Amino acid sequence: MNSLRYAACLTLLLTCTRSAATSNGYSLNLSRSAGAEQCPDRALLVQLLVGKLGYDPFAGPSTGRLSVELGRDGSAWRATISAQDANGATIGTQELTANESDCSGVFSAVVAALSVMLGGVEPAPEPTAVASPPGPSTRPQSSPKAPSKPLPTPPANPPPRQQTALPNPEPHRIAQPSPRSAFELELAMDLPYIASSTGVCAPGSAYSCYTTDGSRTRFTSASSMGDQISGGLAPSSTRLLLSMQYRRSSNVAFHMRSGMAVGGPSFHSFPAQVEAGIRYWFGEDSSPVRAFEGADIGVASFDTRTDVMVMKADGSVQRLSAERSYGLGYASATTGLRWKLAQRHGLTLALSAAVSLPHSGLVLQPTVGYAHGW
């Protein structure tokens, strides 16, 4: 912070409050507005002031109040200090700002400003009676007596005194706030649920059937047999995704994700996937493992491909590829865990369950990812 700006910031507040601080005690109130939740609290501010002043300026009775409000305006950190008298009237106010990555700079300025202002708050010690020097005495002054023994002569080379090094006090470290954004690189697998079905390649079926050379074909039930598939989860496309989370608090974050199918049926039809939603994180940032839940809406095509065997009327058997698409829109619910590997690095495992529209279907999507951020 610029020293001239800092000196100008203190002039008005000290002029209004220094004379009152020397005779009146103050109470202290500290508040943190939105965006400054990670800044230090009142307890730490009082602890630092006690360390600088050598006493607690807020321990005694108070007839006024000091208020400190910490906030953030864009990239600048702001601290507003105001003083009120016993009647609640404001007798001084000033604002400090700092353009830094965290609030440690502006918080240190608040500690310095209050320690200078409160330098006169400590109550004066009780006066101690001092004996007056005696007046001129009429008693005759006696001449000093000569010492009976000569004083010892100090050695020519006295031994050096041993000096004990005092330990340096450990500097106070203000906890750095966690970043507001986190990025994650993910690998996901589509697992559509396929219902058991017959007449897969018959006219009117939701499936599209292709021969080995890529030609689309249809068979009627009168001319084919065995045209059916069994239900269950069918591994489908593999996706590479990049997600970003921007949090509003330590537990709530907005979630955005996009990527492409890098293999499977969706790679050849509609490979893109885009979604947006919200996440709720359980626990604190310092926890080694955090669980989360979320909800999203997005756009993607979840395609399946299944081989079916068809026996034609002439008795020959032909292998066909039956494909079906789910989507393009979907709504999903997600749950997962994140393990903290190091500061701002983590491993994420998640499972999403999506319901696709207008081609309805249920698709599970397990995900593994590497996260960087908070």
Topology, element by element:
Elements (H helix, E strand, L loop, with lengths): L2 H19 L4 E7 L9 H12 L10 E10 L2 E9 L5 E9 L5 H14 L63 E9 L1 E4 L2 E2 L9 E3 L5 E2 L6 E2 L2 E2 L2 E2 L4 E10 L4 E12 L8 E10 L7 E24 L4 E26 L2 E15 L1 E12 L2
Parallel strand pairs: 1-2
Antiparallel strand pairs: 2-3, 3-4, 5-13, 5-19, 6-12, 6-19, 7-11, 8-9, 8-17, 10-16, 13-14, 14-15, 15-16, 16-17, 17-18, 18-19
Helix pairs in contact: 1-3, 2-3
What does this structure look like?
By secondary structure, this protein is mostly beta strands. It has 2 domains: 118 residues, 2-Layer Sandwich (Double Stranded RNA Binding Domain); 144 residues, Porin (Beta Barrel). The chain is built from 3 helices and 19 strands. The strands form 3 sheets. Strands 5-13-14-15-16-17-18-19 form an 8-stranded antiparallel barrel. Strand 15 and strand 16 form a beta hairpin. The longest helix is centred in the N-terminal third of the chain and has 19 residues. The protein is rod-shaped.
What's the short version?
The chain has 374 residues and is mostly beta strands. It is 12% helix and 45% strand.
Helix fraction?
10-25%
Q: Tell me, what is the CATH class of the largest domain?
A: Mainly Beta
CATH topology of the largest domain: Porin
Question: What's the arrangement of strands in the largest beta sheet?
Answer: 5-13-14-15-16-17-18-19
Q: What kind of sheet is the major sheet?
A: 8 strands, antiparallel, barrel
Relevant terms:
Porin, 8-stranded antiparallel β-barrel, mainly beta, 3 helices, 4-stranded mixed sheet, disordered N terminus, 374 residues, Double Stranded RNA Binding Domain
